Every structure is written in structure tokens, then in C-alpha cells.
């Protein structure tokens, strides 16, 4: 092998190494941006604390982060699945509109809902600290947890 061929092979290998280094740096940059975006993703706007759940679903004491629209009911497609024989499959929807929370019945008049122990027909405004009862399951609406890293 003469000197020209050796230099040509070294240049080829150098080019391939530079290409792989460039691809590595691009992937690493994208990965860091993705991790940063996930870390700064919008937090939930509230949470539900399970105060009582005689049949065990959801588990008492659990904190469930909720979004601006949260469905409650016995069906597995709900955001919060409530296991109780008197709870309908699509029992209620908890929504955050403007600066207030609203609890609305989905299957009107069929099953009772209570807010702070008082019957609610159709729907009602709820605030942080209010207790929502669906059957024997009691949930308390709370502010979202504040992240420690700022």
C-alpha cells in the first residue's frame, strides 16, 4: 500500500468519525431538550385526596393529580375510577373553568352526588377543600402539589 492510499483511508475514516460525532451531538442535544420540556411540563391544576373508599378503589389516602377536565365514575375509561355499586359508569365531570371548579352530573338524576354533605342536583361550583361524595366514596379537592425544584 502506497502513501497516497494510506492517506485516503485515514481521510475516509476521519470523515466517518466526524459524521458519527456530529450525529451523537445532535441526538444528545435533542435528548436534553426533550428532558427539559418534560420537566417543565404544565403541572396538574388540582388533586383529589381519597378520604374514604370502603371497597378499595381508589385506595383511601391516595392523592390523584387532576387536569382541567376530570371524569369520575365506575367505568375504567374515567380519569378517576370509583368502585361503588351506586356510582354510575359515567357519573360526573369535574371541570376547571376560568378560576373556578364545577362538578356536573353526567347521568342526570340517576344517582346522588354530595358536596360537603349536601345533595347536588345537576351540578355545583366547588372550591379547594370541599368534599365530594359519590356513593360511599369521599374525595377532597385540594390544590396541586408545589414542586420543590422551583
What does the model show?
- It contains one helix and eleven strands.
- The protein has one helix at about 5-40; strands spanning about 45-50, 65, 70-75, 80, 90-95, 100-105, 115, 120, 125, 130-135, 135-140.
Task: Give descriptors for this structure.
alpha+beta, five-stranded mixed sheet, 150 residues, six-stranded antiparallel sheet, 1 helix
Write the layout of secondary structure elements.
Elements: H1 3-39, E1 46-52, E2 63-66, E3 69-73, E4 80-81, E5 92-97, E6 100-105, E7 113-115, E8 118-120, E9 123-126, E10 131-134, E11 137-142
Parallel strand pairs: 3-4
Antiparallel strand pairs: 1-2, 1-11, 3-5, 5-6, 6-9, 7-8, 7-10, 10-11
Number of helices: 1
**Strand content range:** 25-35%
The chain-level structural class is alpha+beta
Overall 3D shape: rod-shaped
Q: Give the integer mean of the pLDDT values.
A: 86
Strand count, sense and barrel status of the largest sheet are: 6 strands, antiparallel
- The CA-CA distance between the termini, in Å, is 63 Å
Alpha-carbon Rg, integer? 27 Å
Q: Main sheet: which strands, in order across?
A: 2-1-11-10-7-8
Q: What is the chain-wise order of helices and strands?
A: HEEEEEEEEEEE
Low-pLDDT windows of residues: none
Range of helix content? 10-25%
Report the count of strand segments. 11
Short description:
The chain has one helix and eleven strands, in the order αβββββββββββ.
